[in-house]
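Checklist before submission:
- one chain only
- standard amino acids only
- sequence pasted in full

Submission:
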Amino acid sequence: RALGELEKSLRNVELARSAFGRAVACSPGDLRVWLSWGILEKDLSNYEHAKELLSRAAAVKLHQSEEGVSRVAGDASNQLSSLYAFRAPRNVLRTRAHALQELAMICEREGKYYESEEFLRLGLKIDPGYGVLYRMLGETVAILHRKDPRKVRQEYYSMLRTAPNRVRCKIWHWFGLFERRKRNYRRALTCFRVATKLQPKYLAAWMSYAFLQNEMNHSESALALFDSAAKIAEVNKINAHYLFQAWSSLYLRVRPLEPDVARDILRRGMRLYSLGSVSNSASHASNSEDYEQRLNAASMLEGGITDWMFESQENNTKLDEDDDNFDMSSPSSFRSATARSSRAVYLAQLQLALGQLEERQARIDAARELYQAACSSVPSYAPAFQRLGLLEQKRRNFKAAKQAFSDGAEADAKSGIALSLWAMMEARDLNNINAARELFERATAVEPRNAAIWHSWGQVEAKYNNVKQARELLLKAAQNDPEDTISWVSLARLESLQGDADRARSYFENALSADPSSAILWQSLALMEERIGKGLVKARETFEKGSKFIDANADIATLYYPWAKFECRYSNFDHAADILNQGLALDPSSGRLYLGYAELSRDLRKMDKARSYFEMGVRVDPGGCAPIYCAWAKMESAENNVDRARRLYQNAIRVDPSHEPSWRGYAKLEESEGNGLLAEELRMAAAGVIRQADVTNEQDKDEDEDW
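Returned file contents:
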């Protein structure tokens, strides 16, 4: 079995299968072997074989119903006894519950949620202390009863009544996420408070509590909660990289002119790593990210919370922090090695977060060094290679970007994300659609049920006006993940561009059903109503309705900037200013909203005021300010301030060499000044025919302090 785990980690599939087969021959009653083998087949998308193996690990029999759905035929635990089961019965129970969890995940991927629910309930019956099953059950019930939230609430109440004390704090946390999702903030706050009271070291609940406070416009309270959680992590030596990443990100959002403090927060997390602690609570790092990523499995709760739910249970609660991560599929030596590997991944993730912060501050060399350090720390950590590839792509270093994406694909052979990013670069930047399609085919072969990859492919085909193929790919993305809002929105946009408002509206309704808090959803729907729908009044109503639904922790500018531009198109300048004010109150770090203010002032011929807003936009978002510099340069060019416009275009290109409007504007400016040769070189540099540095380095790089 240990040899099989080793070969599986080295991606030697046939050798791993052979080892597991020999282990089964030696001890057919050892459920852990069946579990390890079943997980291997599941990861390879051999679902039917995986179901057979996992059912042996779960010690249950399956039969096919008339509808072709696998059902649990009965408990066969008495038929699979062994000396190991006699010595460690808890291990057997956890192995069986884990196998049922894997079976439920396969059913979810196949869209068989009722079958998944049955497996989860059986897993909880076998091992009531396996917390992750409660989370999955709550999310599955939320999907099955999306239009009847009362049943979902009843399920959470039932879980709280029957769950062991050690997992109740987690259920309270998931319950709070459920409430937050439906904007029942008072109940969500109560749930998060109870979760943090029951188990102060449960940092995921502190994070959700802080994000909710920020969503309620209590940003100082949110930062204070993060500080409290960080002190708990430091006192207990918990390697909680996700906590410091989220805290740094929120701090930079609330106080965008204080990037040094955000850096110090991440370095504080790195110092905690350097203490060399391996706390049990560190194992929650991987799970807590999953909690936040799966917020969409939620509805709402009504009614009072009874007294029994508030009892502290401080005397009889002994939370085993590592209970959900009691992995019986791997030998103890591999679990120890995994713990060491996880600590290395924590450091790599903090390096990655610090690199993203430096990239946002336009410190490209520092960001590149941090990404490379993360790649070196954990060569199997694919996100580091992906971020490095995206950085090189943005800098138009396409050879380096290809190498990074290729390394990312090799680092995690189970993920198609790196291949998908590589394909998008081939299509959008290099106009090589054939190479892009080959890469997308490889990515979908690796992850056939990853909606994001199908969606990206559909977007590329739409860009090349292959409407029929784009529609098929986007539909496949939506079918693979009906809860993925962006797939439905992209379908609706595609249909609206074809002039089919009714079909587009039906796709928007699907998106609303999946996640009404999506800013891109409301923005796209409002613009469709303006263009081909029910006119200006309906579009304005849609913008206003969207502002009440969107998540305050999301990208506010996605909705508020187009809304302000919409009002400006119809000369409602005062209303546009009010909209931008509202947006900046929610997200002071948004350069796009300052850009909107600057454009509004420009349209009103208030040039000095426009310049001050342009400058503020550059200060709050130094790494993403190329569009701001470009718009500013156009204004100065229109005012015949040619030297200033030229310098602003140069700044835009240095910040983001891939920003084509800056290249085109710069070329047009030089052409109007009679510098035809330089204008042609700028166009060639934008197309990648000659090196961009050869053009930009000829210009004067000295900048006034004002810029």
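Reviewer check: Residues 332-360 form the longest helix (29 residues).
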